[in-house]
Write a structure and sequence with these properties.
The chain is an alpha+beta fold. The protein has one domain (6-79). It has helices spanning 53-59, 62-76, 82-85; strands at 6-9, 19-22, 29-31, 33-36, 48-51. The protein starts with 5 loop residues before the first strand and ends in a 7-residue tail after the last helix. The structure holds zinc ion (ZN).
Length: 92
Amino acid sequence: MSREQAFWPVECGEGEPDLLVCMSCLSEVFRRKVPMPECPTCHGVSTYEAFTLNSIRDWGTEDLIARALRAEAEVEQMPVPSAGISASEPAE
Ligand SMILES: [Zn+2]
């Protein structure tokens, strides 16, 4: 048995909800990706829906909100290629 979780990437536009929450168990949340082949907690398939952090804060449990914050921080640690490009683009 492998402990490593595999994910499907989920494309989300800028400003669109990008936190994928399992609507079946409401205890798993990932940013811009969903676990494959199923939810690791409830084993539901296609149970993930996209939400913003604000909406999760509205109705989520403390645990879910903490997970959502962690998922956001995880992505922010990744290098952002657009940071270097902005210097060469004309600023409005
Ligand atoms: Zn689930």
